[in-house]
Amino acid sequence: MSSSLTPAQLDTLKQQGFVVARSFAPAGRCEALRAVALEQLAEARAPVEYEADLAYPGAPASRQAEGGATVRRLLDAYARHPLFAEWATSPAVAAIMRAYFGESAVLSRAHHNCVMTKHPRFGSLTGWHRDIRYWSFEREDLVSTWLALGEETSDNGGLWLVPGSHVMELPAHRFDAAQFLREDLPENAALIGTAVCPRLEPGDVLFFHCRTLHAAGRNQSDRVKLSVVHTYHAASTHPHPGTRSASKPEIPLNDAGASAP
């Protein structure tokens, strides 16, 4: 089990825009988080986001349609259970963020901060995008953690990512009005052709940059996929006042001791 990133892995994160830390979270922690997530998912405990509300490809047509009650995300994970708060602010995560940013880091509660689900029948397809598209910060330099609570592959909706895309300057016409990469353009198709889908096991953590292009397909398995996702930025980077990015109090991280996650 590794509770840190090596210098080489940090370089990969900076150069490639993502890196996987294998067996980062202990099995016991993952099992406990999964149990809480499944309990709250069964209750659709608020606040939640429904697949039907987003209307992505493959989602139910409405809340009243078949599958309309399918939850896409359990929102505000930090506040919904102490186990999620402990994971999001763990010293090991804080130490990695300090190493990446070169200063203390802060947890954003306005973005991600959720349990992401992907259901077998009604989990939708997510097109190619950058998370920063609707975020508003002084600097576009944020890093997210994606903790797998079960196996993640291309067959059950695992993430696909384009290496190096976080440093690419792509003109506006290559995106549609919703800031998804236009798949009808040959240059975009060539870019998508370079994407990879890291296979994740329970406890693996994918660290990825807010500008990294990524997408996810449908879940073709018979089991719901669950991931815990949080986003961090340097303490000296602030959300723009009055924007959604500034809508929730942020949580400073403490990396003193850098104990196990």
TrEMBL record:
GO MF annotations in UniProt: 2-oxoglutarate-dependent dioxygenase activity; iron ion binding
Keyword annotations: Dioxygenase, Oxidoreductase
Gene3D superfamilies xref list: q2cbj1_9rhob like domain
InterPro entries membership: Phytyl_CoA_dOase-like
Cofactor: Fe(2+)
Residue span of region Disordered: 234-261
Highest taxon listed in the record's lineage: Bacteria
Protein name as catalogued: Phytanoyl-CoA dioxygenase
Organism, scientific name: Bordetella genomosp. 9
